[in-house]
Specification:
With 203 residues, the chain is α/β, with parallel strands linked by helices. The chain has helices at residues 3-12, 17-28, 35-53, 125-131, 168-173, 180-183, and strands at 57-58, 71-76, 92-93, 96-103, 114-117, 138-141, 153-158, 161-167, 177-178, 186-191, 197-199. Strands 3-4-2-5-6-7-8-10-11 form a nine-stranded mixed beta sheet. Strands 1-9 form a two-stranded antiparallel ribbon.
């Protein structure tokens, strides 16, 4: 069974987020033993996870210019996904078509709903996040301390599984609502008034 057909079958059952993530974690480490195959398979899985993240986030109505406007998934910096994200372009999610945009530094992010910030932007991350302040954009990254520095969703691989760390304060500040069934799978951190990260729990 190919990676693509496996993912398509999983998407049809993706209402159960936990089951999907368990499948993705298994697939991540079973695609190929070669470094090139591993990396290709890894980012196919992560592209699928970004697509599914959109299903578990609610943006303010004013974020969209019209009822027909697409949800725009943007990448910033060096794109590790290759063509994997393009597989989801045009798909319907939450009643809206998904569009993919690839941004470079200093490009206006207006119109993005989700932004994957590449590890190539590690040194500029504080500045990038400051520039996105007051923008209702879900920021996602893989860098160490991404969520602690104010990014909203951090993806981490531990023990051959993909884990989420979510900065709930950062998301709430931009009026983004993350559904409880996603929060239940995540480690939660939040930024206090001084900008210092603090751990928390869901009630």
């Amino acid at each position: 069974m190919t990676v693509t057909s496996s993912l398509e079958k999983t998407h049809r059952r993706a209402g159960n987020l936990e089951a999907y993530l368990l499948f993705a974690s298994f697939l991540l480490f079973s695609v190929s033993s070669s470094a090139q195959g591993y990396r290709s398979g890894e980012y196919e899985v992560k592209a699928a996870i970004l697509f599914n993240l959109v299903k578990f986030v609610e943006w303010p109505a004013a974020t969209y210019s019209s009822a027909q406007a697409p949800t725009v998934l943007c990448t910033l910096g060096r794109d590790p996904f290759g063509s994997a994200l393009d597989e989801y372009s045009g798909n319907s999610v939450n009643g809206r078509r998904l569009a993919i945009r690839r941004l470079q530094r200093d490009v206006d992010p207006h119109g993005c709903q989700l932004m994957y910030i590449s590890s190539s932007e590690r040194k500029l991350l504080p500045q990038v996040l400051r520039n996105l302040h007051s923008e209702p954009i879900l920021t996602v990254g893989e860098m160490d301390q991404f969520a602690d520095q104010g990014g909203m969703v951090q993806l981490t691989i531990e023990d051959k599984q993909i884990h989420f760390t979510i900065n709930l304060s950062a998301a709430s500040r931009e009026q983004l609502r993350i559904r409880s069934n996603l929060l239940a799978l995540a480690r939660i951190v939040g930024s206090n008034a001084n900008g210092k990260a603090e751990t928390g729990s869901i009630r």
